[in-house]
Design goal:
Pfam families: RmuC. The protein is an alpha/beta fold. It is about 60% helix and about 10% strand.
């Protein structure tokens, strides 16, 4: 905490560049605590052109489901706020507060002129989030000049502090979680449909195979009937030649000869008696 406090103190008393860097650090911390992932649900330091070809580099582009984006730009107004915060004279504090409000208003005008909504390569909503990194500085400005909120809205800007930005980003993270669940549900449904179709084709193939096997068995039974089971079958006739004295090297299998006998129809076809 002491390190953070020292850094904030240097930023409060530093130049605009130091204050801007401090604002980006705070914004980065808020993003890291939101659950969103850089390179996935948000991108930083993108270089984008407007319709005239002028290049801009918004601090953060947060991606939403349904191919929408929100641009966040950190604007730090700390110099006048530091005078207000540390001032001991009431008149000095009052003037510093007016300067602080004027500084915030100037940042709103500056950001509004950039017209980030028209940048090419982003599908942004109709407004930009202007991030004020120091919560008390944000609150004291809005409290002193409530019209700042409407003034910002008139420039298509929403003023946000670390607290309400974190709430908004966690809401977006929840939307992404729901979107991923919906995507998974769609993938499951697609996979289930493919499995069902494969099962249908498999059952058709099995039925066709069964029919083919049945036909093969029918053909087998007819062939065996001609060979050994029907009256006048080939084996019975061949055995008659052997009984008449025709010499053979080796007799036919005994179970076929038995099946081919006059009462062979009682024997299981193709099996030994």
């Amino acid at each position: 905490m002491s390190v953070d406090t020292a850094a904030l103190t240097r930023a409060l008393k530093g130049d605009s560049k130091q204050q801007g860097n401090w604002g980006e650090v705070v914004l980065s911390r808020v993003l890291s605590e939101s659950g969103l992932r850089e390179g996935h649900e948000y991108s930083t330091q993108l270089s984008l052109n407007n319709a005239e070809g002028k290049r801009y580099q918004p601090d953060v582009v947060v991606h939403l489901p349904q191919d929408k984006d929100i641009i966040i730009d950190a604007k730090v107004s700390l110099t006048a706020y530091e005078r207000y915060f540390n001032g001991e004279d009431a008149a000095v504090r009052e003037q510093a507060l007016r300067d602080h409000v004027a500084s915030v208003r100037g940042h709103i005008r500056e950001l509004g002129r950039k017209d980030y909504q028209q940048l090419q390569g982003v599908r942004t909503l109709d407004y930009v989030l202007m991030f004020v990194a120091v919560e008390p500085a944000f609150l004291v400005a809005v409290e002193a000049e409530p019209g700042l909120v409407k003034y910002a809205l008139d420039h298509n800007i929403l003023l946000v502090s670390p607290t309400n930005l974190l709430v908004a980003l966690r809401t977006i993270e929840n939307l992404w979680r729901v979107e991923r669940q919906n995507q998974n549900a769609r993938k499951i449904a697609e996979s289930a449909g493919k499995i069902y179709e494969k099962l249908r084709l498999f059952t058709e193939d099995m039925e066709a195979m069964g029919q083919s096997l049945q036909r093969a068995d029918d053909n087998y039974q007819r062939a065996m009937k001609k060979l050994s089971s029907g009256r006048g079958n080939l084996i019975r006739q061949a055995e008659a030649f052997r009984e008449l004295g025709v010499e053979v090297t080796k007799p036919l299998p005994e179970h076929l000869r038995e099946a081919a006998s006059e009462d062979g129809e009682q024997v299981q076809l193709g099996q030994r008696a």
